[in-house]
Specification:
3 domains, about 65% helix, alpha+beta, about 650 residues, Beta-Lactamase, 5-stranded antiparallel beta sheet, Heat Shock Protein 90
């Protein structure tokens, strides 16, 4: 279509160079205005200052090009215009264009105020127009009978150097751009440089170089169109919201790293527990040795790191290790003199629990393990891991109970920190999903309201132009009709993208019809046979929960379409007592669920994680079954009346 449009435009030069020139300038101006309008409407979300600066620059540059067009004698707007004035306007505009492209690269990574940029370009254009048309101080570029002046020839080389320098700056700062966007920008400036070469070396006012120069500029603007408008519609996260994507990837990486740290700390805790069990077993073997030798018993017991005790059947202390001072703040003699001190230093909330443990242990004559808190004299709280067992002599007579107490305060703090981290991670995940839905709705609204409206106006104006052309311009009319068809396709793409981003169909026709529409649309797009059994449940599910269920349904169907290679899909929604189940089942190739959940980094993806998180926010659960060659079944269970 681009080739046909360029060929058609080139053919108009055979009829009239003035007509060709006018159409070329109007086309470039229309694209520049469209680019500026898109950037202006997404300026709050777009962080790429380069695109903002260039969009404003080209609106003013095209305005000067239109003024340059009006200065031609053939156009007849300025009847007193001279060839020198026309070339002066063209030369000054090229200086402004080359300088703008070069300066724009220095705004990368910086904030730019569009109001200041617009004011600056307004002043620059005003000075240029005044210097050429009012004050007449702009250097002469063309002298009748003599041709181009030395200033004009030098300007051609200088402007070309500015274009090449702009390409060099883009390559130097390529890490700031998506590779596809960078290639299109370099191509656009490259064709602008070729256009300047053609128009600089033309001998006559009109000719093949004149036509090629303007066609190259149209191709340059087409590349800008591809960069900002087309990629902005089909790949908004690549062009308009690239920084948002980078932030989401960084947040996902942080999420994975936090999960890994939690797993590491959990493994450390499990290892510590296992070590504690081994040490307790070791202590039991030591206690056997202590019964054989009082000397060995005292040597080991008095120097143990943990707080050890021995109480007789009447709960009087027989032995207390010296380490009790370090752990409790009370010396062993205090416990010996006051047996009730043990219960008094136990935290009031844990005393009933500890007393019940003693009674049950004495009654059953079994070993036991518990954890409880104590209060030190300075008011601090310490956690103890307590293990005890009955003691017997060689004849089997009960001697009381042996107790061992280890200070696990730091371990408890670590566990609490892990629980808090998990809670914060859950809260952050919920906030991310909520913010994602909010951003989806905002983008969808802008696509539907602003971009949709702009495209509708463009379609109407194009249609009016097509109808107003005489039948003698059938090729041009046919080209306009093809443009109308292309505009319709863009409008439909924008509507489809808006629906995918924010399913307004939930509010338009209801939750159950929306699910049926989603299934029908999936079957049509992927050419897969789908049977569905969906009961009406709109009145049972809150509005906030409906969008989360819809997203899970949408993600499950998308995974089937992308990966399953299925021939048949079954979709069911069932109401069972106080629970609603949503099931998607296919007969595709299946996958290894365990491997998919344990993958790390970019290979893991966010699909399963996001579905699990949405199920949690709904207060329900997600069950996934899959086997290689046997298909996949995804079932979401949502309790009625629950969810965040």
């Amino acid at each position: 279509m681009l080739a046909l449009a360029i060929a058609g435009l080139a053919l108009t030069s055979l009829y009239s160079y003035a007509l060709f020139h006018s159409l070329a300038e109007i086309l470039r101006t229309s694209v520049a205005v469209a680019i500026f309008m898109l950037i202006w409407n997404v300026r709050e979300s777009l962080d790429n200052s380069y695109l903002k600066f260039v969009s404003v620059a080209y609106v003013f540059i095209c305005g000067l090009d239109v003024l340059h067009l009006f200065s031609y004698k053939e156009v007849g707007v300025f009847f007193s215009a001279e060839s020198n004035v026309t070339i002066q306007l063209w030369t000054g505009t090229r200086y402004l264009e080359g300088a703008s492209l070069f300066v724009a690269s220095f705004f990368l990574g910086r904030k730019v105020r569009l109001a200041y940029v617009i004011t600056g370009f307004s002043a620059a254009c005003g000075l240029l127009v005044g210097a050429v048309l009012y004050w007449r101080v702009f250097p002469a570029c063309f002298i009748e009978g003599a041709g181009m002046t030395p200033f004009k020839i030098a300007s051609n080389y200088l402007v070309g150097f500015l274009f090449l320098a702009s390409i060099g700056r883009l390559i130097q700062t390529r890490d700031q751009f998506d590779p596809a966007v960078l290639r299109l920008l370099v191509t656009a400036i490259g064709f602008t440089f070729l256009s300047e070469l053609c128009l600089s070396f033309q001998v006559t006012d009109y000719g093949i170089l004149f036509v090629l120069g303007h066609l190259f500029r149209i191709i340059s603007f087409y590349c800008l169109y591809k960069t900002i408008i087309e990629m902005g519609l089909s790949k908004p996260l690549v062009v308009l919201f690239r920084n948002l994507k980078v932030n989401e990837e960084a947040l996902s990486k942080a999420h994975d790293e936090l999960e890994a740290r939690i797993e590491e700390r959990t493994a450390e805790l499990a290892e510590a527990n296992e070590m504690l069990r081994r040490e307790m077993n070791e202590r039991r073997r030591i206690e056997e040795a202590l019964r054989r030798s009082e000397t060995k018993y005292r040597t080991v017991a008095d120097n143990t790191y943990d707080w050890e005790w021995w109480i007789d059947p009447e709960r009087n202390f027989v032995y207390i290790s010296p380490s009790c001072k370090r752990i409790t703040g009370h010396a062993a003699d205090e416990f010996m003199a006051d047996p009730g001190l043990l219960l008094r230093i136990i935290h009031p909330d844990d005393r009933p629990f500890f007393s019940r443990h003693l009674v049950e242990g004495e009654k059953a004559m079994t070993a036991g393990e518990i954890e409880f808190r104590i209060l030190r004299p300075d008011g601090s709280v310490r956690w103890l891991a307590h293990a005890c067992q009955p003691a017997f002599d060689d004849q089997g007579n009960e001697l009381g109970r042996r107790g061992s107490n280890r200070d696990i305060t730091e371990r408890k703090r670590t566990e609490e920190s892990l629980r808090e981290s998990e809670h914060q991670l859950r809260a952050l995940s919920s906030q991310i999903l909520t913010a994602q839905e909010t951003e989806r709705r905002r983008i969808a609204r802008e696509l539907h309201d602003e971009m949709g409206g702009a495209l509708a106006v463009l379609k109407l104006r194009t249609s009016q132009v097509e109808k107003s052309l005489p039948d003698s311009l059938s090729d041009l009319k046919e080209g306009l009709r093809r443009n109308l068809t292309h505009i319709d396709e863009i409008i439909e793409s924008a509507r489809r993208l808006s629906r995918d981003l924010s399913p307004s169909i939930l509010e338009d026709i209801g939750f159950t019809p929306a699910l049926r529409w989603l299934i029908e649309n999936f079957a049509k797009n992927f050419q897969i046979e789908v049977d569905s059994d969906i009961v009406p449940i709109d009145h049972l599910i809150p509005k906030d929960s409906q969008i989360m269920i819809y997203r899970v349904f949408q993600e499950a169907l998308a995974n089937v379409g992308k990966h399953a290679q299925a021939g048949h899909v079954s979709a069911k929604v069932r109401l069972e007592a106080d629970t609603v189940s949503f099931m998607i089942e296919d007969d595709g190739r299946g996958f290894d669920l365990k491997s998919a959940r344990t993958k790390a980094g970019p290979e893991k993806g966010l699909g399963l994680v996001t579905m699990d998180e949405r199920a949690r926010m709904l207060g329900g659960s997600l069950d996934i079954w899959s086997a290689a060659g046997k298909g996949t079944r995804v079932t979401l269970f949502v309790p009625l009346g629950k969810g965040e």
